[in-house]
Every structure is written in C-alpha cells, then in structure tokens.
Amino acid sequence: MKRQLTYLYHISIFFVIVAGLVGCVDIESEGELAEDELRWGLPSQEFEDVILTHSKSGEILFKLTAPHFDRYDRKDKALFYGGIEILFYEDGEVTSRLTSERGEVLHDGEELIALGNVVVETDTGTTILTPRLRWEKETKLITNDTTVTIITDYDTLYGTGLIATDDLKNKRIINPTGVSYRGVSEEGGGMQLSPARSDDETRADSSVVNPQPRSSRSETMSVVGPSGISNIDNRPVSPFDKPQLPEISDSTNVDTSASTKETGE
C-alpha cells in the first residue's frame, strides 16, 4: 500500500511539473512544438511495391509484400497498407501464409500486427479468420484477443482469443463459443455440416465422427472450457511449450520499386 501511495505521489508531481512547463511556453515555442509534432507524425520514408525479408542467421523467418510502406524512424515502426501478404518459413519452406488489409512492423521486426480481414492458411489445410493478429519473434507465437474462427477439413471452431505457434501446428482458442463438425452423411458419400455445439455438448456426444487429418504433419487443436483443456478427440492435452530460440543476430532487408519518397524529420 505504501509503495502504491508513493507511486501515485510521483505521478501527481509529474503532472504538476508538466502543467507548469506548458503554462510557461510562449507563442513562438508553441509554433515550434506544433511543427515538430507535425513532423513526428509524418513518415521518414515512403515506398511502393515493397518486399521485406526478415532473416535470422541466414535463415528466412518471414517475407512481407505490400503495395505501400511508410517508415517512422522516430517511432521505431513501419506501416504497410493497400493489402499485405506475409509468408512464414521453416527450414527454408513456407509453412503458413497471412493476408490482411494492413499491418505494422514494430521494433525492427520484433513484432508484427495484422489488421483488417486477416486470413491465415497453413500447409496442413487449416484456415484462421479474424479481424486482428499479433506475431512476436521472440516467442514465435501468434495471438489475439478478439473473435476468431478456425477451419479444418473436418470441423470449424468459433471463439475469442487465440494462441498458436506461427506454423499453427499447435493452437488454442481461449474462450470457445461453438464447434461445427462435418460428419458422414447417412445417405453415404460426402460430408455434411452438423450444427454448432458447445464444448460440453460435444464431450457428451460420443457419436461425433472425428477422422484423422490427411496431412502427414502433426497438428494439435485444443479448446479451453470449464473443465480444462481438451483437444477435438476429447483426450487431455497439455499447453504447448514456448519455443527456445538461440541467441544469434538477425537482419531485415527491404526491396522496393523505383518509386521512393523521403521526407525530412
């Protein structure tokens, strides 16, 4: 409690000092501040038809393409818009593809944020639909805190909140709201979509058909419900471990077309 009061006291002193400084600013200084603020909001560089490749120790981690790219050196971020595509690599091969309306790259490639009609497709046949996704290089995890739909060859999961490895071989919906299973039709041949079910309803119905994925790559799908974590076969599953990455240098390369514009800061 004492520490909290001390913290609040320091915050109040800070605002008093800031208020005093603002009151002492003359008209010329206000004009300079306004100009500096305007410059702060402008991009340092503008590019068109960009291809950004981010690698670690010579191994490509992701490749991003976008029609428009604005870099803000002061804010240590870059904005991509006009429709973007990100390819994620593992051992030199593409494991997943992400598309969205726009995106942000923060801290020299340490973090990616995709915004607007985000679609993620993997080489195992899984598709994720959501308004927003975040990827962090340190953890190699994809996360969000909004609505999400996960579609596979045999089922569709709905919910809010996602945590997944960037190859999507392991993934969890934090707050599931329903599951649709594609069962075998009684008439024979073909698949049909069953009504969406809650996690408890699915667990109680042992007649739901859950065939194994056709892909040779292993993949874990799990949801978090009132009784804990379970996968689509209703067998207990542990949360996946955070990947451990070696301490090695990385690099980011940006290829642009002939159209490049620089603005002063």
Q: Which parts are unreliable, with pLDDT below 50 for 5 consecutive residues or more?
A: 2-35, 184-250, 258-265
User: Looking at the chains present, what oligomeric state does this protein adopt?
Assistant: single chain
* Estimated helix fraction: 10-25%
CATH fold descriptor: lipopolysaccharide transport protein A fold
- The shape is globular
Integer count of domains: 1
- SSE pattern: HHEEEEEEEEEEHEEEE
Kindly estimate the percentage of residues that lie in beta strands according to DSSP.
over 45%
Rounded mean pLDDT score: 67
Features:
265 residues, lipopolysaccharide transport protein A fold, disordered N terminus, alpha+beta
What report would you give on this structure?
The protein has one domain: Lipopolysaccharide (LPS) transport protein A like domain (lipopolysaccharide transport protein A fold, Sandwich), CATH 2.60.450. The protein starts with a helix and ends with a strand. Strands 1, 2, 3, 4, 5, 6, 7, 8, 9, 10, 11, 12, 13 and 14 form a 14-stranded mixed β-sheet that branches. It has 3 helices and 14 strands. It has helices spanning 2-23, 27-41, 199-204; strands spanning 45-56, 59-72, 77-90, 93-106, 111-122, 127-136, 141-151, 155-165, 170-184, 191-193, 220-225, 228-231, 250-255, 260-262. The radius of gyration is 24 Å and the shape is globular. The chain is an alpha+beta fold and 265 residues long. Helix content is 16%, strand content 51%.
